[in-house]
Each structure stands twice: as C-alpha cells, then as structure tokens.
Design brief:
This protein is an alpha/beta fold. Helix content is about 30%, strand content about 20%. The protein has 17 helices and 26 strands. The protein has a nine-stranded parallel sheet, covered by helices on one side. Strand 8, helix 11 and strand 9 form a beta-alpha-beta unit. Helix 5 packs parallel to helix 8, helix 10 crosses helix 14 and helix 14 packs across helix 17. The longest helix is centred in the middle third of the chain and has 29 residues. The chain starts with about 25 loop residues before the first strand and ends in a 7-residue tail after the last strand. Bound molecules: zinc ion. Zinc ion binds next to helix 6.
Length: about 700
Amino acid sequence: MTATVTTDRLTVTTDRLTRVPGLLYGGDWNPEQWPEQVWAEDVKLMAEAGVNLVTVGVFSWARLQPDADSWDFGWLDRLLDLCHRHGVAVDLATATASPPAWLVRAHPDLLPVTADGVRLEFGSRQHYCPSSPAYRGAAVRLTRALAERYRHHPALALWHIHNEYGDHVQECFCPDSAVDFRRWLRERHGGIEELNRSWGTAFWSQRYTSFEQIEPPRTAPGPVNPTQLLDWRRFCSDALLALHRAEKAVLDEVSPGVPVTTNFMSMLKALDYWEWSRHEDLVSDDAYPDPADPRAHVNAAMNYDLMRSLKGGRPWLLMEQAPSAVSWRPVNVPKRPGLYRLWSLQALARGADGVLHFQWRASVAGAEKFHSAMLPHRGTAARGWQETVRFGAELRRLGEIAGSRLRGRAAVLLDWDSWWALELDDHPSARMRWPELLRPWYAALHERGVTVDFVPPTAGLDGYPLVLAPNLYLLDTATADRLTAYVRDGGRLVCGPFSGIADRHDHIHPGGHPGPLRELLGIVVDEHWPIPDGETTAVRLDGTAPDGPRSDGAEPHAEPHGADLRAERWSEWIETEGAETLARYASGTLAGLPAVTRNRLGAGTAWYLSCHLGADTGRVLDLPLAEAGVGAELPDLPADVEATRRHAADGRQYLFLLNHGGVERRVPLDTPGTDLLTGAATGDAVTLAPLGAAVLRLPAAEERP
Ligand SMILES: [Zn+2]
C-alpha cells in the first residue's frame, strides 16, 4: 500500500480510495447503536445510495474499552470487514471526544471546571479538561490501540481524530489547567517581569512576583486584565491543539501514510484554525446552515471559502451536514425539497471533494434522535431517503471535478489573534464583533459574484490585486509593514474601522490611531464615535470633494454621485493626512467630516472605511473592486444566482451555477459547455429553476471554438 497525503486530489489521498474514484459521499455511521442484523441492511442501502465513505466509531469509547484493562474490538473488526466487502471505505474515528463513565469516576478531576468554579458532570459529551494528564493519557492509549489494530485494514482510508474540538468545552479553569497555563506563560514570556510588562500590571496593582501567583481568569469582582484574557484565549486554543497533536503523533507513528483529519466547525472563534490546519493532512468541516434563514447560503459560502483557504486552496471535505433538520436550534426547520441538493452542490462549488452527513441512520435514542439522517426513521419510503439516493447518483456524474480548484480574485485578511482582542470587554463599543463586521463585506462580494480567499496576516499577498481587511484591531508593526509594502508595490488594500489600534500585548499604539497604518491610510483618528443601538448616521458618497489633487492627475472613476449610505454601530472622527475624501458624514456630530478615504502610496492605493456601513458596504467596495479590475466569475449574473469556477489541471473549467432564489432565472453564458448533471450541451444561456443548479464543463481555452 502506498499513500500520499500531499496530493491535490482528496480522492487519491490514499490508494485505498482509488477504487472509489470521484467525489466522496456518506456520513457518520454509529452501528454501536444497533444490533448487528441491521448492519447488513445498512451496507445494502449504502450501495443503493452510492455511499463510498463512512465515518465510524466517533462515540464508541465506552464500547471499545469497557474498563481500564479490557478491550472489545470484535464488533469493530466485523464492521470494518463488512465495509470492505461492500466497497465502502472507512474514516475511522479515534473515539476520544466522550470519555467513558468508568474513566471519569476513576479520575473525577478530568471533568472540566467553569470560570465560576462549577465542575461539569458526566452525562453529555466533551466532558474533559484539555490539560488533564489523566484524560490525555487515556485518549492517547485508545488512539494507539486503534491505530495498531487497524493500520493495515483495507477499509481504512482516513483517520478522524476526536470530534468538533471546542464545541461544548473551550476552556477549563481547574488546578490542572492553571498549572498548564503557567507553563504556557513561561514559554511565551520567559520571565515574570516580561509578563508584567506585557500584561500592563502596573494598572490596578496587578503586579506578580512569581508565576505561581497566576491563575486562570476565573470570575473576578470586575473587569479582568485584558492581556491576561487575550493570553488565555491563545492558551485555550493551544491546549486543545496539544491534545489533537498528541493523537496525531501516534497516528503518524503507527499508521504512517494514512491521512488524518479532525472535523472543524466553520468559523469558530475559540480555535485558531490557521495554526490548527498546519497539523491536518486535509481540512474537513461540519456545517449546519439554518434552512429558516433565507440568507444562510451566504454565510455558508463564507465558511466554505475559509475551509478551502486553510490549506492554500487544496480540496477539503464537508464532513458533516444535515440531510434536513437539526435538533439543537429552538425551532428546527427541515430543508424544503431541493434545498439539500442545492446546498450540497454549494460545498462542491466552493472546493469540497466530498459531501458527508451527520448521520447515516437516524438514532432512536439520545440527544440527537430528532436530528435528520440520510436514512430517516421512516426508512426507505421517506422523502429524505429519496433525496439521499437521487443526490448520490448525481454526485457520481460529477466525479471528474475532484481535485479541481478555485482561484480567489481577492483576499480577505482573517487573524484570530485580532478577533480575540477585538472582542475583549471595556472597549468603546461591545457591538464591534468580528463576524458581524465581516459579514456585510463578504455579503457584498458574494452578491457581486466575486470569489475570495481568506488569508492569514502572515500571508504573501502578491497574487491578489485587492486585499480586504474588515477589521485589524490588533496589528503588529511587522504586519503593518507588509501591508504597506504590498500597497507601495501596486497592491490595493481596503481597511475597515477600529483597525491598527493595539499591539500583540493589546497595548495601544501611541501617537494616534490607526497607529502603524497611519501613513499607509493617510488619515488620523481623533476619537472613536460609536453609534448607539437603533440609530444610524448618514454618509454621503459624492467623490466630488477631494482634499487635494491626485498625484497621478487622473480622474477618479467608478464613483457614484450623491449616494446616501447609512452607518450603524460605529463611526470615527477622522482627519486626512494626504488621503482624499470619497465620502463624508452627512448627519450627527460628525457631519462634514471624512467618512471614507483613499490614499495613493507608491504604485498602490489604500482605502479606509471609518464607519460600519452594514448593508451599504458594497456601495463603497464597488470603488476598489472597479479600480482593481476584480469582477464576477460570470458577468450579468441574475439576483440570487451564485457562480463559481473550479479549474482542473488540464485547463478545463467547471462552472457552478446555483439559484438560491424562488424564481426561475436565465443565466447568459460566454462559453458553451456541457451540464454534467444532465449531460446536455448548453447554448448561450442556462435556465435555472427555483433552487435549481447546473455544473457546466467548459473546455480548456485552446479547445474553445
Ligand atoms: Zn482543567
């Protein structure tokens, strides 16, 4: 058996999967919940649905290890043999997300403790302290036992570490965690005086004379030291990652060559996925857009773009989605007919090479018994089962797209460190939350059909004509220098409000905001001016009142005249220092002051939005998009139609057209192609039914008529 984990094609990450070429289809299978007679029916129905990959054993620790010194692998042996006989590959879980009762009672101190000192009980899942030596030792032992037993099993295609790190327990305040936090702080800061400087402990008499005096940021009388909280966020992500790495090290040692993943949870604040994804062989994601939200597909697109970006554009795997309703919202609306298919295709449209689900067969007991499944409680007569079978057949027609990639036309900067710091308490406004700042920017790009990549602050930006930074509250001078060099060399940067505020210790950059971005943006912020809830401030985008002549003498272009926009949540009293004013505040105290500016620096341009423009953000982003020549994947895209393009190594393209609206849409095409879903050749347009989709194979440029 040879296997490579670095190849572009997810489907050949191990040659065990080459016998199921194409896209991956399947779900979490929890056979330990069923008598073995049911398994035979399961694999028969899997064949009917075209399932080629199942995730097995995610919550089977108590079954695999009934007590500290006994193991029960017989059932899993039979299960993997059954899968192999029926041509179903296995994504085998390490089963460590839910430690069994006997382990918890033997080591009660492995249960996590809240900031208020409450120890969380057994009886749910993820009931472990990330820093518990007892938990880690037991998890690594189980992982090794599984790896040694199944490393050569022919059904094994992928290892699945743990489950949804950080879903329920993201932090623990117990004594073990305190010890681990102090170790982490020593490694980060070196000495206690360095820590005192970093944490600014001269404030409120918080000075420490020894690391032993430091505790996790438990509930305190008032605001806790913000740098302590920021270091805590960093530590908590690292503590969970250390657990993951401990299991990964065992799998790499015992079962080399078999790729390893853990299921991410889309854009999750608690975990720095840039750092985490360095330790994944492939990125996989659990995504549960809400069918009751008519704009849910926009957020889903955003999350899928992040997943694709985490490993530089390599194909990723949708590890979990719901075939229909979930069970954990207050009201769980099912997916209306067609929505499951459309949203599944959307993951593929944004770079996934497979669509998996929670779960294969609906449970009859437990907390998720009302969660939909590929095989619903009603069985094969159910509407859900019919959709499962139909989509499995369609997926087989799309096999050739596996391994093809998207190319973002612009980049969006995402920095978890800045996200954590932005959302600390005692800021000018508690309404400045990263997801809410980002969403209108992303929605504007999505609405305009622009595909974007997410990039970390350390990324090289040269390949992107346009870089968007909705917020960079925390910004070190090295990153600011890189952004400045990018613009000087001809790049175009758009920066959102409340940026360039603090350094990596969350100390204010002195001398006026936006600190190290001041020269790049050509402005200075005199004062932050948050807007109370329910109020807005008018902003007039006129382009007629530049503060000074343009250095290149050219006329401004793509500037709408007299457009009235509404700022919400945030505004700033800014003064220009070389930038031209593109929009001014038109109401309130700031009326007449600059609101949106543009600064030429070297060969490039930097825009600054000093306010949060919500749904009007796109009206401003149109300017830099036009100037950077960044446009839609397809011109003249009708409303509600999402278009993306996957590029194959041989030059072919796959154009995905997804109609998220309730009205039939006609999409004009610049190149005729073949719809892989129907096999039909297209002319100069495609008509999409409500919730309809097309996946067009377009010939390589040199083969086009
Ligand atoms: Zn703990």
